[in-house]
Amino acid sequence: MSTPPSATARKIRIGDLLVENGLITPEQLQHALAEQRKLGSKLGRTLIDLGMVKENDMLALLSRQLSIPLIDLRSFRFDPALVRKLPETLARRFRSIVLKEENGAYLVGMADPTDLFAYDEIARALGGREIRLALVREDEVLRTFDTVYRRTEEISSLAQELSEEVAGDTALDVGQLGLGEDAADAPVVKMLQSLFVDAVQAGASDIHIEPDQDCLRLRQRVDGVLNEQIIREKQIAAALVLRLKLMAGLNISEKRLPQDGRFHISVRGKSIDVRVSTMPVQFGESVVMRLLDQSGAMLDLEHLGMPAPMLARFRNVLHSPSGIILVTGPTGSGKTTSLYAALNSLNAPEKKIITVEDPVEYRLPRVSQVQVNAKIGLDFAAVLRSALRQDPDVILVGEMRDQETAEIGLRAAMTGHLVLSTLHTNDAVGTADRLLDMGAPGYLLAASLRVIIAQRLVRRVCEICAERHLPDANDQAWLAEMRPGVALDGLRRGRGCQHCNGTGYRGRIGVYEYLEPTLDMLNALRRGQHDGFVHAASRAPLYRPLAQAALDYALDGLSTLEEAKRIGGELSPGGVH
Fold first, then answer.
1. Please, which contacts does 216-223 make with residues 24 or more away whose CB atoms are closer than 8 Å?
2. Strands 418-423 vs 394-397: parallel, antiparallel or unpaired
3. Is residue 509 classed as helix, strand or coil in its secondary structure?
4. Alpha carbon distance 1, 158 (integer Å)
5. Most buried residue, 163, 283, 412, 572, by most Cβ within 10 Å?
6. Rounded to whole angstroms, what are the CA distances from 172 to 97, 169, 500?
7. 345-393 pLDDT, tens per residue?
């Protein structure tokens, strides 16, 4: 094992170094040392968190002092096999990552290259090979771990182990797999643990377990798109499904009917609520799990992605003492997230808030949340009637599903309550037609409607691999129809990198269509005239269709033309039907 390039590291004390170079004062150093002793963190991180020194300044100084490069992990292209030569536990413990192999030596990035103990442990784990050090930012290396230390190989290995256990005893009750004293070591438990950890690291919203004729498909929905892993050991499907049924409190002997349940898990310090849905299919039972992160702070309105003028108008409407606010869009368009953010802004000791949901997704303090249960007659309409006798100020109705629920909600909005609800329609102007078709009286709509918001989610361009994009002839023709004469300088797309799993996208952002009814629209509603409502909406001065809003994101480089065209494809060129 060679001597590290930072041989002088034993003599380097980061605090003294910063004082000598005038980045902090001796008094600041003493204060930071006292805080460090309380928190048990590294001194450098403590100084940064206290705002005494900028991270870039400190890293640049360390790079010069140790004569090692400072590497930006956001633009670095990794070899996953090389990264995994360092076990994940050590990598996370020492904030270190293997970057390159050249001339028989490893280049290892460390957030703290002055840590000689960490250097020795890493060198031992890498078989005594020569190590050259580089400096990396701590937050960047932590984000990188979730990208490169995926669990796909581990899941495949555990699937094979579980297959051997299932096949080893024909009398084995797979429903009892993972029970008893050795439950934590059971292959089925370890495989499910790996599956959940991998999904959380990837930022997946759903996990799909789908038995097929010749294999088992494990799929994760990341940024609205499913990613697939094929497991050849198809016989393990029954063990996975039954174990999940036990965890969700479902009937393990019932395989002919769909079932719904939920359970709670903790993954890497995150509190995850898992909603489970099973359904009999041709080759067994399909399971879909929705992952809801309960540990993070409740989303607020500022993080929804609404343009500032729209957000200001929405806040004004939310402070209305009565009326109905409708959020529309297809499944998975973020409607519930928007409503919870709105409720969070309204949640105060002086307001009584009741929600009627199916199911309750996030727990809110101070809010009375009711879970619908149609099997015992506890449907939306029944709960809503009872909720009105509980003296509420604000009511959230999970979905307007039928005429009775719509009428009760509209009447509640007329009698001094603020009502928030969702509806499944393509755009804002189609909402009036949907409610009229459901039998809601036009005069009730006109008297209570405050605002309709239609929304979608579009994928963000990956900032790590983003590059300028010149549209082809077909895209230019579409742009000419949507926005004649527009400048194309801001168009971007991602070429695909390790950080975005080769997709060119990372994260999503909301696209909104905001419609506050004008006098002409309200008069059309009173007469029950859908066409008149659409015509009046198209002439409203502040109305901007979904397709145009999505195109704004593409032209600004936040999303791509492909994403804008996907939204535009659901609507007419102007966005109004």
1. 216/159, 216/240, 218/155, 222/501, 223/459, 223/503, 223/505, 223/506, 223/507, 223/508
2. parallel
3. strand
4. 35
5. 412
6. 43, 5, 42
7. 999 999 999 999 888 888 888 999 998 887 788 888 888 888 889 999 9
